[in-house]
Amino acid sequence: GINPVTGYGSGLMQVDSQHFNELARYGIKPEHLTTDPCMNIYTGAYYLAIAFKKWGVSWEAVGAYNAGFRKTERQNQRRLAYA
């Protein structure tokens, strides 16, 4: 999927392209996310776990996975829209 602000999502978990630089430090390349379903799900679960740690196991955390983790009022509204 296309994210008009940060880029696009890759694979089953729609891992956002904004994470590619961070993932490169762990040897994960963008093509791994589209060709290896297990890597894609593992990576998506990693970012979802970060959201759960910040917002608890909640729909707000799921919204954060989709809308982003910034703690601004605008991002909060986006998270709630996904929740």
TrEMBL record:
The molecule here is called Lytic transglycosylase
Q: Which Pfam families match?
A: SLT
Q: InterPro entries under this entry?
A: Lysozyme-like_dom_sf (IPR023346), Transglycosylase_SLT_dom_1 (IPR008258)
Q: Which SUPFAM superfamilies match?
A: Lysozyme-like
Domain of life per record: Bacteria
The Transglycosylase SLT domain sits at 10-79
